[in-house]
């Protein structure tokens, strides 16, 4: 599939940390939850899940209530966040009186992408039975808008072919935050793009409204294999715009494996078998030629999508350090030849594998 440089390509990414290198400032903090009690007074592990949250760079805050059921004050020696780039802990009270509760503030910073995130906090105490307390915050963040593809692999198409691909444009709203779908789309690099069909609206829990529309991409045909790049340009009704780079590969119709060989100059003749494949239709190899061939190889007259050919190669027909080509001619209508590169190197220990 295309390499789409978006905030996110698919749901279901579990993040135990974060990629940002910046910390959280006090100005970023927004109270979104109230203090919640713990299930057990003696528990050493506590977790809070914010549920589904629309990600627009905000910071979520939660307060854990730590009870002290013991008969003496509970001293909190130190605490830290395992991922300080996107979470923070404290300030901590010095101690919690017997029978009382201590308020432990924690924050979690959202990015702009769709991801599941779970961060950990650790507090060390002077209680022998609860020396380490572990706190966790979790959230399912969803991007305000993104493109989604069914397969995250890089898209490729055969040489000399033009193909279509449908992807999903997703826009989300939650409360006062969110985005509508783009009003228009254009493309560069020979790629064409247009919206395909009407938008569909769905509603999920946590007051999340989702708008989805199909986008049809038409990849241009190209005679030469290699990587290609283009850009999708989205425009919103309010004047906002974003550009998304897309990359794809144009692959040969016929490939050879291995694509290259290395032979030692004084090792004598070497017998090697190569496999030539077509991913779309049967073909025949009609002729093989190259200066390293000791004799023309045997060729089958039956068409096939995979052809094994055994070569007898004599490195004495070349000089060390020189690369020579063995060319296979085919009757395929799209690709008439495929080439094996053979490098001859100095040495007398036999042909290399």
Structural class: mainly beta
pLDDT under 50 segments (min length 5)? Answer: 1-16, 25-39, 349-353
Any idea of the CATH topology of the largest domain?
Immunoglobulin-like
Beta-strand content bin? over 45%
String of helices and strands: EEEEEEEEEEEEEEEEEEEEEEEEEE
Overall CATH class of the largest domain: Mainly Beta
Give the full name of the CATH homologous superfamily of the largest domain.
Immunoglobulins
How many structural domains are formed by the residues? 3
Number of strands: 26
Classify the helix fraction into a percent range: under 10%
By CATH, the architecture of the largest domain is named: Sandwich
Task: Enumerate how many helices there are, as a single number.
Answer: 0
Radius of gyration, whole Å: 31 Å
Described by strand count, sense and barrel closure, the largest sheet is:
6 strands, mixed
Give the N-terminus to C-terminus distance in angstroms: 34 Å
Instruction: Provide mean pLDDT, rounded.
Output: 85
Q: Rough shape? A: elongated
């Amino acid at each position: 599939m295309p390499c789409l440089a978006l905030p996110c390509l698919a749901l279901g990414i579990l993040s135990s940390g974060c990629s940002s290198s910046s910390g959280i400032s006090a100005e970023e903090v927004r109270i979104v939850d109230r203090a919640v009690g713990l299930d057990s007074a003696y528990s050493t592990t506590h977790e809070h899940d914010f549920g589904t949250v629309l990600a627009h760079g905000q910071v979520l805050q939660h307060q854990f209530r730590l009870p002290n059921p013991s008969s003496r004050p509970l001293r909190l020696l130190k605490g830290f966040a395992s991922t300080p780039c996107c979470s923070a802990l404290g300030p901590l009270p010095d101690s919690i009186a017997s029978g009382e509760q201590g308020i432990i503030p924690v924050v979690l910073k959202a990015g702009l992408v769709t991801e599941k995130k779970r961060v950990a906090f650790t507090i060390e105490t002077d209680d022998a039975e609860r020396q380490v307390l572990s706190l966790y915050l979790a959230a399912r963040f969803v991007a305000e808008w993104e493109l989604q593809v069914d397969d995250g692999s890089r898209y490729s198409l055969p040489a000399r072919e033009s193909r279509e691909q449908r992807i999903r444009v997703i826009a989300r709203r939650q409360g006062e935050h969110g985005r509508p779908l783009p009003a228009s789309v254009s493309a560069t690099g020979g790629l064409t793009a247009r919206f395909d069909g009407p938008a569909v609206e769905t509603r999920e829990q946590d007051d999340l409204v989702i708008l989805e529309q199909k986008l049809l991409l038409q990849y241009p045909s190209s005679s030469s294999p290699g990587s290609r790049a283009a850009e999708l340009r989205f425009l919103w009704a309010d004047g906002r715009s974003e550009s998304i780079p897309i990359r794809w590969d144009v692959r040969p119709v016929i490939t050879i494996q291995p694509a290259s060989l290395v032979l030692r100059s004084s090792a004598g003749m070497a017998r090697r078998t190569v496999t030539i494949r077509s991913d779309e239709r049967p073909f025949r190899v009609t002729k093989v030629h190259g200066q390293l061939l000791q004799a023309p190889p045997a060729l089958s007259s039956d068409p096939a999508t995979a052809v094994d050919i055994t070569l007898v190669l004599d490195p004495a027909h070349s000089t060390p350090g020189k690369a020579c080509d063995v060319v296979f001619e085919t009757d395929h209508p799209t690709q008439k030849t495929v080439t094996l590169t053979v490098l001859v190197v100095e040495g007398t220990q036999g042909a290399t594998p």
